[in-house]
Amino acid sequence: MILTKDAFGEDFIWGVSTAAYQIEGAHNSHGKGPSIWDVFVEKKNKIFQNHTGDIACDFYNHYIHDLELMHSLNILNYRFSISWSRILPDGTGKVNQLGIDFYNRLIDLSLELEITPWITLYHWDLPHALEKKGGWRNRDIKEWFGDYVTICVKHFGNRVKNWIVLNEPTVFTAAGYFFGIHAPGKKGLGNFLSAVHHASLAQAHGARIIKSIQNDSVVGTTFSCSHIEPFTNRDKDIVAAKKADALFNRLFIEPLLGLGYPTDDVKILNRIEKYMQQNDENELKFNMDFIGIQNYTREIIRHATFVPFLRAKIVSAEKRKVEMTAMKWEVYPESIYHILKKFNAYSNIPPLIITENGAAFPDRLENNQVDDPKRVQYLQDILKQVFRAKQEGVNVNGYFVWTFLDNFEWAEGYHPRFGLVYVDFQNQQRIVKSSGHWYADFLK
Ligand code: BGC
Description:
16 helices, polysaccharide degradation
């Protein structure tokens, strides 16, 4: 069966996603302050071949051409993020008008081209000035974030309706504050748990602020999620898989829905109490208009006696010798079906939108063309699974490809290419891959 766009219904939202630090470049232009990523990439051996996002896709200077290209590919919804330190170079206080001007131009041109903007307010690039005060470990971040959100909604809300509060809080708290492999490079349980709780608070607080300023806004937040399976049917592996599921998939959605942190399955989460104040549990709740699902793969989990706190570990795709992407993630499209079913099963869940999904493959530029049949196949297989879930009654209303342009893939630098459009980072040339042409045809 060939699946068409029409099968998903007229109201289904189709788009692409990007993030400021991964594409904009212009890292210190026109009054922008440094973010934690600008600082982190300067440290030796944190990023693949010490790449930086200083220039990236230079989207800041190429956005006109890029939006026109998007339009030519029939893409009608564009999810991008705002760089907090471009708007507020010190994180709080004085607004950088040139930063506001840039996003105004971006929004205006999108609308002119009939592309609907979806703004992510936080996609990991915290102003460095705020990290110096503790960043996500400092409870004051709830107010700092609230002030920044207020400024964005007041400036852009007359033209932008769709807002995403946070991008994947589990990833930025775990990678940035527990493992130290992402900015700001902090490690340890205390850093992680405080960051988790404050991100949870900021998530609901930010959403409340958007609604209070713009009551017809459409507000959501996004979660990274992977279908989890135990390595064997042994009890120990089953318990390990449950813990991983609680941490990877349930940590942020459940407090948001009023269910509290998943402490039953991960006892160590009880230590979050140390950071909680009276009434926090209520404050973590918010009725979002949608939940953004971001899925790339599944994880297989086994018991591991020597892993502290969790006693669980991932059995890598490489070890299992299964088909993998350039990120060494298993190609497993059914994961998205299981995740949609899982989230849809929460009793008071709002509609789901897939705000990110895609794959990195080793693309090659030959005769000014990039042929990427594996990505086309991956996207088609994913859409079949989304359709399967939808047919079974899952309330899923949209799908955004990660990502439009090849870009700076965090700790992996420019090595993995996720784009529908190939970027030659030597000369900033854009070449639409066959997957980009396929998506354009699909959307026609
Ligand atoms: C993030 C993106 C990232 C993508 C692929 C998601 O975790 O939101 O910024 O590039 O996955 O790794």
